[in-house]
Amino acid sequence: MKTTKTIFVLLAMFCSLHIFSQEEMTTEKVKLTILVKDGSNNPIPGAVILIDGVKQPRVANSAGYFKIKLDKAPKEITAFSPLIGVKKVPYTGKNSIIINIIAETNTAYLTDTNTEKVSDAIQFRDIYDYLRGKVAGVTISTSNKITIRGISTMNGNREPLFILNGVPVDENSFRDIVPTTIRTVKILKGPETAIYGLRGANGVIEVRTTIN
């Protein structure tokens, strides 16, 4: 009887250790080292990195390297250089990743609104500059508050609804949009916003990008 209890206790301990080790494995962070280069294999300092479409707060260092620790494996990684273009690559499980941005192939995207090359958007520092320079019907304050012209409201809140690639997003996600990834921008107001219900009362800004 004593032997049986001892075996039972040992089995319970083994199972606990096994479960604990599995939890450690599933919560293990993913460490990535990304090197961004141009078509001539020269490093691109200051390249912007997006993980699954989310812009990271830091940029590539002077040698073109970018290091990050993630809670889970990403699906894709995007590198963006204002002087060259954009390159998106799938994550294949490797910890060291080299992304080559080649100007000839990455500036070939055409916007649906005016058929200009994406390289035309390089002059814009952020989404707010892009809207100021290329989109009619919006007013942007010096503090980057966006309102749609012709919209009146009773409660003082005039912030429009932001839609990124078909999904409602908050202002923080909206401001992270990289101008050279923009395909189309639509400003909706009045009856056009009916599909969004009350959320679209202050108008809607729909943005579609090359990063889905």
How does this structure look, described?
This protein is α+β, with helices and mostly antiparallel strands. The chain folds into two domains: about 30-105, Immunoglobulin-like (Sandwich), CATH 2.60.40.1120; about 120-210, Ferric Hydroxamate Uptake Protein, Chain A, domain 1 (Beta Complex). Helices cover about 20% and strands about 35% of the residues. The strands form four sheets. Strands 3-2-5-6 form a four-stranded antiparallel β-sheet, with no helix packed on it. A four-stranded mixed β-sheet has the order 11-10-13-12. A hairpin with a 3-residue loop joins strand 5 and strand 6. It starts with a helix and ends with a strand.
Summarize the helix and strand pattern as letters.
HEEEEEEEHHEEEEHEE
User: How many structurally independent domains?
Assistant: 2
Number of helical segments?
4
Give the DSSP E fraction (strand runs of 2 or more residues): 25-35%
| Helical percentage | 10-25%
Across the major sheet, the strand order is 3-2-5-6
Coarse shape: globular
Q: N-to-C terminal Cα separation, in Å? A: 62 Å
Low-confidence stretches: 104-119
What is the SS-derived class?
alpha+beta
Mean pLDDT rating: 78
The strand count comes to 13
CATH architecture assignment name of the largest domain: Beta Complex
Report the C-alpha radius of gyration, rounded: 24 Å
List strands and helices in order, with pairings.
Elements: H1 2-26, E1 30-38, E2 48-51, E3 54-59, E4 65-70, E5 76-81, E6 85-90, E7 96-101, H2 103-106, H3 127-134, E8 138-140, E9 146-148, E10 161-164, E11 167-169, H4 171-175, E12 182-188, E13 204-209
Parallel strand pairs: 1-7, 10-13
Antiparallel strand pairs: 1-4, 2-3, 2-5, 5-6, 8-9, 10-11, 12-13
